[in-house]
Amino acid sequence: MYKIKENIDIIKAAIDETHKNSNFSALPVPKLIAVSKKQNEEKVVEALEAGQTYFGENRVQEAQQRWASKIQQYKNLQIRLIGPLQTNKVKDALNLFDIIETIDREKLAKEIAKEFNDNVKTKSFYIQINTGSEMQKSGIEPRQSDNFINYCKEELKLPVVGLMCIPPLHEEASMHFALLRKIADKNNLNELSMGMSNDFKEAIKFGATSVRVGSSVFGNRNE
Q1: What structural domains and CATH numbers belong to the chain?
Q2: Which pick of 7, 32, 150, 184 has the fewest CB atoms within 10 Å?
Q3: pLDDT tens across 151-197, in order?
């Protein structure tokens, strides 16, 4: 046993407490997305048995192998893609994930729109914003975000409901969360996926509606 339930209970208590004392306490409590990428099977099953229903994966193929059978076995699961999506994997992704959080370029948005219909599993999308304008990171530049959000929603008719970001490692996360919140408010988007193991409390103070937590739930990947 890896004490996964104990970890989840501790994180959820911290989420509840931080949310209750935030300016967003009237809104629903943020969801805990357990980042299961590259975690061993026993840990994931332990999380499932503890009642965890929201999971985040980085790769389509790995997620297919892990979740294809579990989706039938466990009720109310919600699987999210939180890693980069290649255009040649769009069809597979749309039939596996409930939410895709990482629309980050026009070519990908067009491909998703081409394959999107009422029969796919994905019902909503987030746009990834590169709040730190980092060369090595995916995401739309903040100054281009309004036009891109409008393009996805109005021209491509995609059900974009929120934004996600990954702040630069060595910068104060709060200013990036504040920027994401500002862009979301300006574009009438209600969902904000921001905050990870080391900064999810800070993200909740800026209105995160879901936090992506891996190591604090599952421990290190080699344990």
Answers
A1: 4-218 (3.20.20.10)
A2: 150
A3: 999 999 999 999 999 999 999 999 999 999 999 999 999 999 999 99
| Block residue for tokens 């219909």 | 117
Phi, psi (deg, nearest 5) at residue 5: -60, -45
**SS3 state at 145:** helix
Query: Which three-class secondary structure state does DSSP give residue 179?
Result: helix
Any bridge partners for residue 102, and if so which? none
Can you state the angle between helices 4-20 and 41-49, rounded to 10 degrees? 60
pTM > 0.85: yes
Instruction: Of 182, 173, 169, 177, give the one whose Cα is nearest residue 210.
Output: 177
Q: Among all chains, which residue has been given the structure tokens 């509606």?
A: 209
Torsion sign (Cα): 173, 138, 91, 163: positive
What is the C-alpha to C-alpha distance for residues 156 and 33, in angstroms, rounded to an integer?
28
Torsion of CA 195, 196, 198, 201, to 10 degrees: 40
Tell me how far apart the terminal alpha carbons of the chain are, to the nearest angstrom.
11
**Under 8 Å CB-to-CB from 153, ≥6 apart: which residues?**
160
